[in-house]
Amino acid sequence: MTTAGRLLRSRDLPLRAVAQRTGSTSEFAFAKAFKREYGVAPGQYRKGA
């Protein structure tokens, strides 16, 4: 998830690409795991909220 956080903040990649690069099987599974870890959705994290 640390790598995913870096990718979300430093690159303008679609969520699908971030999920694939971090080994997730689907966008939905990735988003759910990300929110569980960080407490916010990937899109909100990307915006800095």
Order of helices and strands: HHHH
Please identify the structural class as seen in this structure. Answer: mainly alpha
Integer average pLDDT: 93
Number of helices: 4
Largest sheet: none
Helix content class: 55-70%
For the secondary structure, the number of strands is 0
Report the portion of residues in β strands: under 5%
- Low-confidence stretches are none
Radius of gyration: 9 Å
Distance between the termini: 17 Å
Form type: globular
Key features of this structure:
49 residues, 4 helices, mainly alpha
Task: Quickly describe the structure.
The protein is mainly alpha-helical. The protein is 69% helix and 0% strand.
Layout of SSEs?
Layout: H1 2-10, H2 15-21, H3 27-38, H4 42-47
Description:
The chain is an all-alpha fold. 69% of the residues lie in helices and 0% in strands. It contains four helices and no strands. The protein has helices spanning 2-10, 15-21, 27-38, 42-47. The longest helix has 12 residues, at 27-38. The model has no long low-confidence stretch (mean pLDDT 93).
